[in-house]
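Service request form, structural biology core

Requester: graduate student, group of Dr. S.
Request type: structure prediction, single chain
Budget code: on file
Notes: please return the result as structure tokens.

Sequence provided:
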Amino acid sequence: MDELIAENADVITRIMADGVDLSVAYDVEFIAVFPTEAAANQVAMMYKADSKMGKQLINIKTTPREEQAVALLLVKSMLVTAESISAFESQLIERAKGHGGYTEGWGMLAE
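Core staff response, request fulfilled:
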């Protein structure tokens, strides 16, 4: 996970250099892609269960893709730090791999 933290720290450094105030929480989007709708739904159900246990997510959504795959979008309100992003992303990577999927990273909108 050290490599993931370093990679995310680099991205966050560039975001801060653009003048974005990271002392407040942002809605951060994480995307994973799965070969089937069933696989995407299984991982979505894991995050729905997490939400019921207090790990609130703003959005959990699956959508078909043109390349016969299904994307899972997870949106979480959080402080953007290398550690917090990497912890959530690491969990998503493991869950996605366990169901034949992969992650496409994360993003956020900042004004």
